[in-house]
């Protein structure tokens, strides 16, 4: 099904179609230049010319075909959708206060709800504001955001762009704006460090305008909130704005289906084995469910919430740590609940094959000199 026209392949590699055809004959494939060949064959042929075809595409296609074959990420009926909490990522230039802001939000909400406090770091946490939930990805910087997007995962609903009021729009601020725009994620600007005497909101707003973010009070549609992570000024307003934007987005998911989530982070624990923080996006994940993520699979043996408390269930927009996977999954990969172990095993095996193929290509990269020698 994943076919490539021989002529196109020749163009891509930079050789004549007849050279490709003769290699194909050597592989037992009889075609003319207008016919198509399997992408796996195309990869092998390209290799013969010392060219690394974008095998990433191939493995991604394998992944997609796995998803299709097993109908892992099916569309839900609109009537099954229930509203869900927004998932928020904090982005911005280094030292503008991303970590401090996340801490301030965590503390603000903790003092309001439970006195116990959030002790462990699991890469994501949920806060309750007037009985409404917001889920924060606790991985400051856009690295996490971009690597997840590179893997096809769209986790973020709203981006908080932190800009230090005493420093202004910087290169990483612009990068963050571009990433959020590419992902079509709405941006709320938190103008941070308002406690500093050199804070200058108007200057920041002017710089935002120069980057196509026109503040609401300047006639545009970008929400800006002056805050101080240091003395917690403006945090509640920021949270209210997040809820407002989320309301407009009408975020929804079906809680009554096989769970689909994204691995936020994962590591090997000496005693407990592979631990993975999963952000559930659809369905409800329960202890005892069979899950698969890439080549890792297993039955969920136990689940912990973002406060380290054991839980039995996790619905949409809920971060949980799960125990029971066969190996440590990759951050950014999707996790699927499947019906039985047989399905999980076969999916994991297919995924392993795809990874192996990718690995092999990486090892076999041939230099241009080799190419000429070979031809
Ligand atoms: P990140 O690199 O964006 O995560 O920034 P950090 O949260 O690590 O903050 C960088 C520095 O700015 C630290 O020294 C913080 O204490 C300081 N900082 C963060 N927020 C504020 C604020 O609201 N006011 C002041 N005065 N300093 C802040
Ligand atoms: Mg930081």
UniProtKB/TrEMBL annotation:
Gene Ontology molecular function: any one: translation initiation factor activity
Superkingdom of this protein's organism: Bacteria
Keyword Metal-binding: no
Keywords: Cytoplasm, GTP-binding, Initiation factor, Nucleotide-binding, Protein biosynthesis
UniProt entry tagged with the keyword Ribosomal protein: no
Location of region: G-domain: 86-234
Sites where the protein binds GTP: 92-99, 138-142, 192-195
Locations listed in the record: Cytoplasm
Tr-type G domain mapped to chain residues: 83-250
Family affiliation: Belongs to the TRAFAC class translation factor GTPase superfamily. Classic translation factor GTPase family. IF-2 subfamily.
Function: One of the essential components for the initiation of protein synthesis. Protects formylmethionyl-tRNA from spontaneous hydrolysis and promotes its binding to the 30S ribosomal subunits. Also involved in the hydrolysis of GTP during the formation of the 70S ribosomal complex.
Protein name per its UniProtKB record: Translation initiation factor IF-2
Originating species: Tissierella carlieri
Lineage: Bacteria, Bacillati, Bacillota, Tissierellia, Tissierellales
Residues of the full protein shown: 135 to 509 of 715
């Amino acid at each position: 099904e994943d076919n490539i026209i021989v002529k196109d392949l020749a163009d891509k590699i930079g050789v004549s179609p007849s050279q490709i055809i003769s290699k194909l004959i050597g592989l037992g494939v009889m075609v003319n230049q207008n016919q198509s060949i399997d992408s796996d064959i195309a990869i092998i042929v390209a290799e013969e010319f010392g060219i690394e075809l974008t095998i990433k595409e191939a493995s991604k296609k394998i992944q997609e075909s796995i998803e299709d074959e097993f109908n892992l990420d099916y569309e839900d009926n609109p009537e099954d959708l229930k509203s869900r909490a927004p998932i928020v990522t904090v982005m911005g230039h280094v030292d503008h206060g991303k970590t401090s802001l996340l801490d301030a939000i965590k503390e603000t909400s903790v003092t309001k709800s439970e006195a116990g406090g959030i002790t462990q770091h699991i890469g994501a946490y949920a806060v309750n504001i007037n009985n409404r939930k917001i889920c924060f990805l606790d991985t400051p910087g856009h690295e996490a955001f971009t690597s997840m997007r590179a893997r096809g995962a769209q986790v973020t609903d709203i981006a908080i762009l932190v800009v230090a009021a005493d420093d202004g729009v910087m290169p990483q601020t612009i990068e963050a704006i571009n990433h959020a725009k590419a992902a079509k994620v709405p941006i709320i600007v938190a103008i941070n460090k308002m406690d500093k005497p050199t804070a200058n909101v108007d200057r920041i707003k002017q710089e935002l305008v120069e980057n196509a973010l026109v503040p609401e009070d300047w006639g545009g549609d970008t929400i800006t909130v002056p805050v101080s992570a240091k003395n917690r000024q403006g945090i509640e307003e920021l949270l209210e704005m997040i809820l407002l934007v989320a309301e407009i987005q009408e975020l929804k998911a079906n809680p009554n289906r096989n769970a689909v989530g994204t691995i936020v982070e994962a590591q090997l624990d000496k005693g407990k084995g592979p631990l993975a923080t999963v952000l559930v996006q659809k369905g409800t994940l329960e202890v005892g469910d069979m899950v698969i993520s890439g080549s890792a699979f297993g039955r969920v043996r136990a689940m912990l919430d973002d406060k380290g408390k054991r839980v039995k269930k996790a619905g949409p927009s809920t971060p949980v740590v799960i125990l029971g996977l066969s190996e440590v999954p990759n951050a950014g990969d999707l996790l699927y609940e499947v019906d039985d172990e047989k399905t999980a095993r076969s999916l994991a095996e297919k995924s392993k094959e795809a990874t192996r193929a990718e690995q092999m290509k990486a090892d076999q990269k041939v230099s241009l000199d080799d190419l000429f020698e070979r031809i």
